Amino acid sequence: MRREVRLAGYGGQGIILIGLLLGKAAALHDGKEAVFTQSYGPEARGGASNADVVIADAPVDYPLVTRPDCLVVMFQEAYERHRPGLVEGGLLVLDQDLVRPDPGEGAFHAIPATRLAEGLGKKIVANVVMLGFFTAVSGLVRREAVEAALRSTLAPRLLELNLRAFATGYDYAPHAREAA
Length: 180
Description:
By secondary structure, the chain is of the alpha/beta class. The protein has a single domain, classed as 3-Layer(aba) Sandwich (Pyruvate-ferredoxin Oxidoreductase, domain 3). It has helices spanning 15-29, 76-82, 113-119, 126-138, 143-153, 156-172, and strands spanning 2-10, 33-40, 48-56, 70-73, 91-95, 109-111. A six-stranded mixed β-sheet has the order 2-3-1-4-5-6, with helices on both faces. β2 (33-40) and β3 (48-56) form a beta hairpin. α1 (15-29) crosses α5 and α4 crosses α6. It is globular.
């Protein structure tokens, strides 16, 4: 098994962090091989931001994402830029408040990640809400693996809120309808 995941948004949304967390969860806490790469524009905030993660059962021989099997988008321009590269039948996950898919898009999973994060009191954790949702709908890594990655990565003062954000996204998945 080899899955290519692209997470895309804009600077300041924490896209790089959730890519790092996904890679750590797979490689350090779920017994898989994983490679994480990142790219972003020159702007500190507001420019394009991408995190790519390759997750596999065997050593990763080529570390770059060429045609993602999974695309997570939190920004309209990211959807427009990266959607054409998603493999046919691939998993598309989006923040329904920030991304409007093309008419006739086909199947995708949507969550109001930013709105749910605001309900937790901090819009900044929308990325971790999205990571929870993606973890649930993709099945690529175990919930416990991502929670362990959160614990080993984040400062103690940030942990409780981020664990709640992750759980909020994860628990939203059964209530979300796959749009077609």
